[in-house]
Model the fold of this input.
Amino acid sequence: MVATQQNMTTTNPVIPAHAGTQNPEPPVLIDVENLSVEFPVSSGTLFSRNRATLHAVDNVSLSIRKGESLGLVGESGSGKTTLGRAILHLQKATRGRVLFEGQPINTMRGRELRNLRRRMQIIFQDPYSSLDPRMSAGAIIGEGITIHNLASTRADYNRRVAELLEMVGLNPEMARRFPHEFSGGQRQRIGIARALAVEPDFIICDEPVSALDVSIQAQILSLLANLQSELGLTYLFVAHDLSVVRHISDRVAVMYLGRIVEIATSADLYSIPQHPYTYALISGIPVPDPRIEARRQRVILGGEPANPANPPTGCHFHPRCPFATDQCTTEKPQLRQTKTNRQVSCHRSEELTLEGV
Ligand code: SF4
Done:
């Protein structure tokens, strides 16, 4: 499973942050600087309440370039959805800041903030609860067009709604139908059209396929990938399953208990994970070739992630990590840039050689 003391630089070429292009890197669109989101929580009995702080997002820094797709992966409760909401300014950060095209969004007001809200959109996880059942598909898609004055005439509005329905693979005549008349996949297409209606630059896709049948998931992922290349969109693609983000992400960030533990290009992360948690997640991805599958060793993580209101000392992952040492129980590892052009937060990442898929 693990060989130590190997030189990983020989097997892991340096690939630029925007994978797959030879051009100079595009400018950064989203910059997250030392962002923390904390919530006060109380525990105990009615007569002896203890006050504690839940560290939902713990000092996270990352950037996303224009046209890039960054996957954000972690178990339920890892803080990925809270991080996404804080980036969109829907959740107040306790510390740190988010910059959009170099401008801190927490200082924006009035027209500037309204324009930012148009340029940053979200596609929700649940296509059943995220659409108002009293509104037709056309009205749901067109709401943002009206709010942001993006159509000058009624004919212009109708033309744009029809165009958006076609862009997401739906018949424009479906504009008059209501959400209950659509399947789950079709509803998610309406959610995507709603996000696109206001001509955004950046979209957070918050687990957009996790509520859908497996057969439909691939269609929606393919639609999102095509729209990204046609429209030059930038994505933060949130998922709890590494296999979902694999083909749609240029880079992937792995989150555990509020902290980023590894960021690498998609190719590097899946072929040679360097953080034991990433390794455990990847070892759970099935491989289609039965001969390879038979040889693979799975890492079954013991226990549940710790309570973010009372996280373990040192490395948060140490109670579940098969490679933990005494140092891991007391010293918090920092997210460091490695020789292989990735960032990893593990005391032992240089000496471990972990198998990918
Ligand atoms: Fe495991 Fe230690 Fe690395 Fe944490 S720092 S992931 S406990 S080896």
Observations:
- Residues 1-21 have pLDDT under 50 and may be disordered.
- The chain is about 30% helix and 25% strand.
- The two ends are 13 Å apart (CA to CA).
